[in-house]
Structures are given as C-alpha cells and as structure tokens.
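User: structure tokens for this one?
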Amino acid sequence: MPQTARQWLEHIRALELPERVRIMNVCGGHERSITMAGLRGALPDNLELIPGPGCPVCVCPEEDVYTAIQLALREQVTLVAFGDMLRVPVNVPKSEARSLDQARARGGDVRPIASPTEAVRIAEADPQRPVVFFAAGFETTTAPVAGMVAEGIPDNLSILLSGRLTWPAVAMLLDSEAPGFDALVAPGHVATVMGPEEWEFVTERHHIPAAVAGFSPDSLLAATYSVLRQLQEERPFLDNCYPELVRPGGNPAAKSCLEQTMRVGDATWRGIGTIPDSGFHLRPEYAAHDARVLFPGYADEGRKRAGEMPPGCDCARVVLGKLYPTDCRLYGKACTPRNPVGPCMVSDEGACRIWWSAGARPDPEAATGS
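Assistant:
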C-alpha cells in the first residue's frame, strides 16, 4: 500500500541526519507544491529545501523578450506567447515598452495563449497575417511545440523559439566549486518526457543522491526520504518516486518530434550566461517557420550584454539556489507581483512569486550586498 505524506514525514523524522542537509528541487511545480503544502515547516529544522533553476520564464534571455516586444511593435504581425511571458520585464528606458503587456497597451497585437494549438488556430483564422509564436519553456513545453511543427503548421506561422533543457543548469552548478546542495529532487514532468536517465550524471559522476518526484506531498516526501537514506547509507543512486508517469526512456513520440524538428546547442540563460548544449534551436529544414530567420534585423547582440537582471535584482542568484527569495534586496519592496522588477516575481513557477503568494514577506535582515 502506498505511504501517505504523514507516514513519510514520520520516516524522515526517525532518521539520524547530519547537522545540516540541503536538498535542491529543480522544478517550479515542485517549489509551488512544497511551499503551498507547508512542507518546509513540517520537516526537521536541519533540512533545507532549496528552490533551483526550474522556472523557464525566469531564465528566458532578455534579448528574446526584447525581440518579441520589437516584433509586436514594429512589424505587422500577431505575437502570441504563453501568458506568463507577457509580464516579463526587460531593461529599457521608462519611455519604452518594458514587457509584451506594455507593447500590447501601445497598440501591438499581442495575445496570450495556453497551448501551441491556439497558435495554429489564430494563424488559420487569418492566413494573410503573419503570426509569431514566442515559445519559451523547458522540455515539457517545448515538446508540444516540436509536435506542432512536425505535424505541419500554416505558412503564416513562425516560431521565436526560446526552449531550454533543464539538466545542463544543474550540471553547471555541480561542476562549480560550490554547488550549494547535498542532494537533488529531479523534475517529474521533464523525466516523463525525456526519461529519468538524463539525471544519472548526478549520482554517477558527482556521487550526489537524487530522486525523481511527482507533485503531490507524498511523492515529494518520498523523494526527500529516499535522498536522505542515500546520504545516510553513503549509497547514491537515482530513485524514481514518480513511477505512475515516469518510465525508462521517457516518451518516445515526444523525443522523436524534438529530434526531428530541433537541434540542441549553446544557449543564454538570463543573468547566468551561456550554458553549453542547453538550448533547443529549430533545424535549418524549418527555416521558413523560424522567426529569427524571417526577421533577422531584430537579433541585437548588444542585448546579450545588457541582458542581466535589473539593478538590485537577485533573481539569478535565487534561480541558482544561492539565495532564498526573501533575501533578495528588492523582494516585497520595489518588486511585487503587481509591479515585478525581476522575472522570478512574474511566473507561477518563479520562486519569488510562489513565496509571495504563500505569505512570505521581506526578511528585515536580508542581505544588502550583491
């Protein structure tokens, strides 16, 4: 019989653990479940659950958001994007549009969508008008985009692709001198698509305990217990605590669509820099639907240099698990969900937005340095 969340908590509390154990979760959905269920308060005080790089909106490079804004304002196109992307701010003078929402307020035809099929329907409804789909996301979001492209899309629909793979950011942290965590809870939805094998490098190369988890408290606590037992026994391995959906090899059909339509290459992560082999790019065969090819004049290399977080914003350090949201200098002060300064306060998968929604308010002793 499956264990309940209460039973997993009892198992965890019965363990003899080191004075401090830091467990990173790599999924915005995990962080939302952990925070909303109050798991941090229920676990022993020596356990730290650290939100990691699991928010695609937070790491979408500023130059891509800027390009989307300029296309919406300067070209006779309809610009569609997943809802959260409309509020992501970029670093521009106050006289200019700082987000797609502001571009829409200035007359741009910008529309939020919830799935790639909506982009197809919008393009089919007006075949004479170009439609640009600003597609930002991790593997679980990019796979449906790949499926859409593989099936064939209207001639007037192009893709401004800003897809990212999750595991390279974790690999970058582990390859650094100070990764900042002792165990890892890997993202269940990504593993459902790509397979759990992507995360074997954590245990095999770095000898750090890891477990794939779903999104319910019992699955998250089962994964927490697993990595703690691995630490205790000094026997790291990749555990699958989400067997209902995660299978060896992942989803063959989704992976086939990704392979057919996209290649993997170096990519920029906002505030972090370029991470090798971490981005999805449309293959040359699909150049007729690649917005970067169709609108080359908007590829401003200068934006890459300008594309850090806004002054005072610590989103990059929050994304990398170096700071908790409440330690950010702007959290709850200049930066709130109503007026976000950094992208982590925009998305429902951003740690800052999640913590704010759960009632976490600024730490009066938050760091004032960089």
